[in-house]
Amino acid sequence: MPAREAARPPTEAAVVGELGRIAFLLERAAAATPRVQAFRRALAVVAGLPPGEVARRAGEGTLRELPGIGERTAQVVGEVVEHGRSAYRDNLEDLAGPLVAGGADLRAALQGDLHSHTDASDGGSDLATMARTAASLGHRYLAVTDHSPRLRVANGLSVQRLLAQLDLVATVQEELDADGVDLRVLSGIEVDVLDDGSLDQDRDLLARLDVVVASVHSKLRMDSPAMTRRLLAAVSDPLVDVLGHCTGRLLGGRNPDSPGASRGSKERPPSTFDAAAVLAACAEHGTVVEVNARPERLDPPMALLAVADAAGCEFSVDSDAHAPGQLDWQVLGCERVERAGVSAERVVNTWDVDRLLARTRAH
């Protein structure tokens, strides 16, 4: 879907809004990717139709002749054309209760999200859609942090592709400003921490970014002394602003220490390292510790969150969203931070954008 769209007739605007809302609710509920994609594809098809055609086709019963419109999406479109709303969405809205008991106060204090992905790497939507969704959730800023080159499975960004994304960030920002959308798009990256603790991207380019999240994605079963050295090197690097999902764990269907529902299918134990040393180094070097809110991560575990708190670390509560609806997952991390007794002032994405950027630029 284009970042900016001409005004549509009310019926077409209602159909586009309905399909977008359904996709959002499915993403929020961690529905299967093909199910979500069906609605995102249908949205793109409808958005590209000439004025009046969606109503005409709904009346004629020819919606399914359009590539990308299936039985379910045609039914939804037809109901919206006739009634202004679909039963499918109503059912999803009925099921879309709070994701977790708790965390609401901190979530209300958050002004942004420092970890999100777009279709430039392994996300499911373009930057403009992610940004506009973040704004609709009340954010004042969103950092786009797609992957770095070595993570080929996630289509990590080369130097050239990251430079192109910087141009895109500027373009999307101009469009948001022109439309009166009060959101700042921050340039960023989730840079891979290499085996020796160095960073998987050109250092001069990293220095240009607003936010650098450094995460380990490979050799997660490295022995504890080696992993400790690796993480110490990363968190002491002045280019690193945030240590992402520090243990790398995946919970699978389990959820050992949080009321939030875990929806992942894979399971992976946490990496082992000297947590006290690494988190003390984060506090010493001003590297923020991410509380990753993805329900299959919920990283760090509560015990390590307590160690980071005792060390005097600052935190960011991030969605690690790979789709627009996943931006709403932040509350899962907020619940953990509140339960740990960490004050909102030590969560850097409760800060306004000027204060946040002053911190990352000085860092």
Chain-wise SSE layout:
Elements: H1 10-28, H2 33-47, H3 53-60, H4 71-83, H5 87-95, H6 104-109, E1 112-113, H7 127-136, E2 141-144, H8 159-178, E3 184-192, H9 203-208, E4 211-215, H10 224-235, E5 242-243, E6 250-251, E7 267-268, H11 275-285, E8 288-292, H12 302-311, E9 315-318, H13 330-340, H14 353-362
Parallel strand pairs: 1-2, 2-3, 3-4, 4-5, 5-8, 8-9
Antiparallel strand pairs: 6-7
Helix pairs in contact: 1-2, 1-4, 1-5, 3-4, 7-8, 10-11, 11-12
Structure report:
- There is one protein chain.
- Strand 8, helix 12 and strand 9 form a beta-alpha-beta unit.
- 44% of the residues lie in helices and 10% in strands.
- Mean pLDDT is 94; it is low at 256-264.
- The strands form two sheets. It has a seven-stranded parallel sheet. A two-stranded antiparallel sheet has the order 6-7.
- The chain has helices at 10-28, 33-47, 53-60, 71-83, 87-95, 104-109, 127-136, 159-178, 203-208, 224-235, 275-285, 302-311, 330-340, 353-362, and strands at residues 112-113, 141-144, 184-192, 211-215, 242-243, 250-251, 267-268, 288-292, 315-318.
- The protein is elongated and about 70 Å long.
- The chain has 14 helices and nine strands.
- With 363 residues, the protein is an alpha/beta fold.
- The protein has two domains: 10-95, Orthogonal Bundle (DNA polymerase, domain 1); 104-362, Metal-dependent hydrolases (TIM Barrel, Alpha-Beta Barrel), CATH 3.20.20.140.
- The longest helix is centred in the middle third of the chain and has 20 residues, at 159-178.
